[in-house]
Design brief:
With 259 residues, this protein is of the alpha/beta class. It has helices spanning 12-15, 24-39, 51-59, 68-92, 104-107, 110-125, 148-158, 195-199, 213-225, 240-245; strands at 5-10, 43-48, 97-102, 129-134, 163-168, 189-190, 229-234, 252-254. It has a domain at 5-170 and 235-248: Carbamate kinase, CATH 3.40.1160. It has 10 helices and 8 strands. Catalyzes the transfer of a phosphate group to glutamate to form L-glutamate 5-phosphate. Keywords: Amino-acid biosynthesis, ATP-binding, Cytoplasm, Kinase, Nucleotide-binding, Proline biosynthesis, Transferase.
Length: 259
Amino acid sequence: MKTKRIVIKVGTSTLTHESGKLNLERIEQLVRVISNIKNMGHEVILVSSGAIGVGAGKVGLKEKPDSVRMKQALAAIGQASLVSIYDKIFKEYGYSTGQVLLTKFILDEETRYNSARRAFDAMISFGVVPIVNENDVISTYEIEFGDNDTLSATVAELVRADLLIILSDIDGFYDSDPRKDKNAKIIPVVSEISEEIMSCAGAEGSSRGTGGMKTKLRAAKFVNDNGIDMVLLNGNVPEKIYRVLEGENIGTLFKHKEK
């Protein structure tokens, strides 16, 4: 697969244990893979969930709270720890990181949009790995993305990426929910987000994440409409990203139509 600039989105369920605590081994594997991909000449932007989940783990909550106030507090608590860990491990592989916290209103106005794009381009030119998350601490309903699948698709379009890879806790896109249907079959390539495809998606994400399959399909449609391919891949083994870049048929490829 011929790609230069890649956006990788990793979900909370991939980054944490069932306890809500960080899966440090998984994070280290992911950072090592991204660092090696950069060594190969690719440019990588990481969109990372996990701040609220990490914050909940730090204060001993088993599940995410419902109130906005609590979510904002947990995001502030968790984001600092999450980025600190990323930065520490990336440095071990010779790379620096830059934290980018976005809210939707930043991208809804041309001047702010172009400013954000220039900032990303500058960081990438320095060889830095931008680590992106929604600014949950100040987000309200009117200015939030709502989930990091949507955020990652928006970032992919913003930075003019060649490929978006969404790492989830599922192997790819199935014709029915594999958690409920043992006969569910994975669909290796989706060339159009049709009503039939949308009907195959369930409604909910995991107990630790916010995005379900429908948010991933909406992300795929958005990037496909903007000329970007998307791959949905199980993040339990980050080394699978190599196989994607080698062109192997793994996970589900949402292929944009050539114009």
